Amino acid sequence: MRTNGSVCQVGLDCHRTFSKATARDEDGQVVWRRRLEHRDRATLKDELSSWPEGMAVILESTFGWGWMSDELLEAGLEPHLANSRKVAAWRDARGLAKSDRIDADLLSELWLQRPRWWEVWLAPPEVRERREWMRYRMTLVAMQTGLKNRIHALLHRHGIVNEHSDLFGAQGRRMLNSLVAPAEDDVTLPESARATLKGYLQLLDHVRRQIARVTREYRKQLTLSSAARRLMTLPGIGQILAYTIMAEIGQIERFRSSKHLASYSLLVPRATDSGEPFDPDNPKGRHIGHMGRRTLKWAWIEAAHGAVRSGGRFRAIFDRVTDGGKKNRNRGYIVVANELCRIGHVLIEKDTDYCADRPARPGSRVAKHDSRPGMGQPEDPMVAAAV
Q: What is the pTM of this model?
């Protein structure tokens, strides 16, 4: 290990309480190795500030990279994010064991790799803020669902028949309140069950208030995003799904085409067959991808359910794939979600609203006599001209 070389790049292997750093010079030789403690943030800042300004620092895309990248940017350094799966596969292909020192050494070598096959997008702080709000609401909704299920289970355990279509609506809630504080001659639940039900209802009310607060934050941010408003013109996409999609996409400019966005959204079919005869009715080895944004896939498929219910073009696509909804319904929703994703990319990129009428092709008879709005290009389907 050299002790007096000029540092050109650093590999930083981050953990919960410390990081291991390996610095290399322009020839790829190790200059120094250091351990950085996270508990003393002031000392950490001083250490990072002592590194050459503008130097590349490569981190792995594992838990906790966000705050470290912010510290690196504040120190005048240039953080880059490496795909953890690819780095692990590269380490295994070289027959190396996994250790903190080896991981830091490997990360420091990546900067000399051309092309940068290892690099993934480093989300800026504003995108991470939107995702923080989104994941917080998803957690609250999951807690709300869990509490409702526990209340249903409690009633079932004690033989309370629920006749309401919505147990947590106005009438259902009155029934639950009567079970918590019954009249003296109308005791239907034992004391332990009434106390449990009361606690569940109090937790449910608190979670609902938190969800309402986050939803108000969603609406406030959506009013500032023209891209989200464009997405909401698509059938099946409301405020929650529009916010989720925009938070997961981050910046539309990083996708070269709608196909790349669909692949990132895990909506592109892939094949793993080998020597199998192809059967169009029952294709073997076909599946959607697994490396991408699963929340984004969920959002597009959720929007596909709403788009199919709204009828029109998307219902026609669903019926064609599923034979009128008789078979392969899940595949049908995936196909519709893929179409929504591709159209959504055009809406955001062109900053235009969705139009249910397909634009006429240039030079066609309809194009000469019909004044319907449209982009006039076959590769920009289902969009209206920007105002």
A: 0.80
